[in-house]
Specification:
The chain is mainly alpha-helical. The protein contains seven helices and three strands; from the N terminus they run βααααααββα. The chain has one domain. It is 69% helix and 5% strand. The protein is elongated.
Length: 217
């Protein structure tokens, strides 16, 4: 039996961390909202409260995506029943959905912050000034984070295609656990399978560049 290319890229774990824009890192160092808010003017305390809520929301959504990601088994060499494929497809789709929620939270940051500030009766002048500082301080980092999120989705979508292929070709390949892969004599399967793996490598390389750029900010 011919062996498939065992080289496959798993999504980089570093991209699963929550990246906080540099301009708010000093605020978060040793962060104690209750203590700090008492020392600030009322509007600044409200802004700090909103920022804290938003960051915690991001962290919660990131943690949810992380938890789902950790359940996904990318080793095709362990697939011995078609139900294994269906389970992995379900987990992949679950991650894609969770990542979409995370991306929406990032994309809508200004709208979310504005709504929460207005709820707390912060003046429009203070809201505008805060959002300008937010925008100026994190525009490039924000764009890179979204690009990383997009590559996460692209990687999982490619793995869905791999699972679809293995499901469609069920019975013409065998698991090859020693090589973390499969083996088959089906030329079409070999070609498509390896192209998908090459795609995951390409996505991982693209993501690594974004992460490196983000860390250099």
């Amino acid at each position: 039996m011919r062996t498939q290319n065992p080289s496959h890229s798993l999504i980089s774990r570093i991209c699963q961390k929550i990246y906080i824009p540099l301009f708010i890192v000093p605020i978060l160092a040793g962060f104690n909202y209750n203590a700090l808010s008492k020392e600030l003017p009322p509007e600044q305390a409200k802004i700090l409260e909103v920022l804290s809520v938003y960051i915690n929301t991001l962290k919660t959504k990131q943690a949810s995506a992380d938890e789902i990601f950790d359940k996904i088994d990318f080793n095709v060499g362990t697939i011995t029943e078609i139900s294994h494929i269906k389970d992995r497809k379900a987990a992949l789709n679950e991650f894609i959905d969770a990542n979409a929620v995370l991306m929406d939270t990032r994309k809508n940051a200004e709208a979310i912050l504005t709504e929460e500030l207005e709820k707390r009766d912060v003046s429009q002048k203070s809201i505008d000034a805060y959002l300008k500082g937010y925008r100026d301080g994190q525009t490039k980092q924000h764009a890179l984070l979204l690009k990383i999120d997009v590559t996460n989705t692209q990687s999982m979508e490619t793995w869905l295609s791999i699972m679809d292929l293995l499901e469609a070709k069920w019975g013409v390949w065998e698991p090859y656990p020693e090589n973390l892969s499969i083996q088959t004599e089906d030329e079409e399967l070999i070609e498509k399978f390896n192209k998908f793996l090459e795609r995951t490598d390409s996505i991982a390389n693209e993501q690594a560049k974004y992460i490196e750029e983000l860390q250099s900010q």
